[in-house]
Amino acid sequence: MTVSAPVSPEERALAAQARSWPFEEAGKLVARIGGAGQEHTPEKGYVLLETGYGPSGLPHIGTFGEVVRTTQVRQAFQRLSDVPTRLFCFSDDMDGLRKVPDNVPNPDMLRQHLGRPLTVIPDPFGTHESFGHHNNARLRAFLDSFGFEYEFQSSTEWYKSGRFDATLLRMLEHYDAVTQVILPTLGPERRATYSPFLPVCPRTGVVLQVPVIHRDIGAGTVGYKDEVTGKTVEVPVTGGHCKMQWKADWAMRWVALGVDYEMAGKDLIDSVKLSGQITRVLGAKPPEGFNYELFLDEKGEKISKSKGNGLTVEEWLTYAPPESLALYMHQQPRRAKRLFFDVIPRAVDEYLGLLEKYEADASPATAAAKPNMPAPNPLDNPVWHIHDGKPPRAEAHLTFGILLNLASVCHAEDKSVLWGFIARYAPNASPATAPILDRLAGHAVAYYRDFVRPAKKYRAPTDMERAALDDLARVLTALPADADAEAIQTQVFEVGKRHAFPDLRSWFKSLYEILLGQDQGPRMGSFIKLYGRDETVRLIRRALAGEDLAA
To answer: 252 FRET partner, CA 20 to 30 A, in 62, 274, 416, 469?
Structure first.
């Protein structure tokens, strides 16, 4: 459990005025419990936020986005209220495996276990005691890498330990009312066989979707007909002998745990409504929350953990720092966004820009320059949420895009190559004093190696472009060695204006295609300042001489 750390009066006042979406959601929680003071603490002793996870396939980024966002709501609530909080990450690992994911080894072995709970199916990776345990471990490893404060909860453990028993028996008492919530949403054939209780077959271990033909509230059991033996089998609804059907299971969990907040994807809007109705049937109040939009892959298709058609956590973290992923999750949660490799550099640079803005907004000089403007609320800057109110300082003010282009022109295989240029550009920066920049350099080399280099395609300059490049080389040579990025940028503009380009965009596109082998590129003044005036002139002369710049 987390008891909110002391919040200063200044931060409490800023929190009350904050308009970012996590504070809007936290305000709903404050209203739910009736106020912000400790006297409004729920009977269970805390406010409970929950995220759910179905471990039938390997974890994907969309799954983790829910944890990032829920954590940000929790942090906002902790600035508004003194009431203790807990965050449960709940794995539905007692669910029966319905189909074999496309992106796991040993699919033939898994097919032999279809229908059985995930925590009793052998691990196809051979590293854990079950497939469910393996995927749970993958989830926890990611959450731990972010430093989230959470409590992992296993559906299997809750069912088998008896902690769900009281609510399961209440569900059995209200069997007919619960069933009537779901039946109108089903087709005629499914209505004839539906039961909110799914018996776990004692003979096969399969989670069965069979009609319940007998219920005994006093004994706490349900009965069904075994399709193989023809006999009626009676099993307790408690102790892990039954698994609840999906929407009833969600409601049962909300009631048993006393969940106060849980968000869900837009595809689950109807499920949220139905589970909320069942929660009320059981005499409880559904949690607060909202429905976020789904992530799409490069083709605009929904990301599926069974298809594995989206970025994995490991892939993102290979090419960018975790803070950039947290930012991507934070921004516009109610808007569908494509999630593929090309979004990574932009996400990194947006994070760096927001970090600089946070620092600038806090500067007395900024306030003095805008005396009649209201000061920006730092709690509405996404980096405040990403770092729980303690963003690091901005470093060296170099974008990820600039570092990528530096790696490209240097054909860097190691970040130490980039540091040779960075140290000249920012003499006070080093891997020790600028750890964010150091990580970015390593990510830039990896991204260049795997995505930029394979797509590079240089072209020779036209006669008009040759004249412009020669002009640029002479102008750069004439500049003072210590000319800053703005002075360099101005001269690059002036050269473009002197030649017959349709517009300046065409001039810069020529520079990118001829010198960098790509159709997009950096702000040239900043790039030349980082790469070096003399080095840039040599690069231009090599291009004019027809040398292979890819070598």
So the answer is: 62
